[in-house]
Amino acid sequence: MISSRLRRAALPLIAGLGLFGTTLAVSSAQAADEPLRFGIISTESSSNQSTQWQPFLDDMSEALGVEVQPFFATDYAAVIQAMRFDKVDLAWYGNKSAMEAVDRAGGEIFAQTVAANGAPGYWSLMIVNKESPYDSVDEVLDHAGELTFGNGDPNSTSGYLVPGYYVFAKNHVDPATAFKRTLNSNHETNALTVANGQVDVATFNTESMERLEITHPDKADQLKVIWKSPLIPSDPLVWRTNLPQETKDELRQFFLSYGDTDKQKQILEPLQWSGFAASDNDQLLPIRQLALFKQRAQLAADDSIDAEEKQQQLADIDARLESLNQRMDAREAAQAKQADNTTAMAN
User: What predicted TM-score, i.e. pTM, was given to this entire model?
Assistant: First the structure.
């Protein structure tokens, strides 16, 4: 049970427009009955998400002894900004939006989701209507000027970052100018507009495809996958770094133990998860690497930059990539050592 001191964790007391005034000296205090607020990125309509999430949030409220309120927004950026200004205490993000929250909103990854189907992550997709004459990304890019494209939220990993690099940057294509028209929407909207023939091609992902096959099987049947990405790590859970340690401990215990009972498994089923695993900010290393790869490809193709300046910028990106490579190698070595130790103990 969270104590009254723990429940004083978080939302700042903002008086009028004095957001950064001296009144913020007490911003870390929170009334004993102040709820925890859980940010939920917009992958589909908020009404659908409310139905899926509320039983889980109710269980969290009961376990922590404090009301947990959902925070829904129309786009990913709003949840990131809400965390930045202490309007949410923890949130479910994709990897790209988690990176933004960690870098710009004082966030810290503490857990990640575990897929119900046992998959180690998920995959980004490019989809067209099943009646479409196009069967590959190359064919779509060849006819982009005639097509309407449904891109993802700019802070979406699978809807924007991953296809932005693998489909567009690597092919030296700017989707904002290549297509006849480009729209940005959540995963569900992208899928439905393609199924209904309103958009010619769109980004999507395997998790949302599985959900669509349950919620709108007739629409899922109208889709054709023309591209699948490399594996994307499972979604992270992020809390504000300025939460009291006791609150973090309570949250960590709740998440890492959740999913053990039949009731909890049923509650997680609509979310397509079986539970949660411990994680940290290093989960973002391959996402950071991907973002830099995309940035490098765009820079290399930009002829408007002075050659000397371009080489300096490319060298800077290469140095940052090498640093990421070293961190990833060290992390993989540590994980391999831990796995060996676990195996040795089991034997």
Answer: 0.76
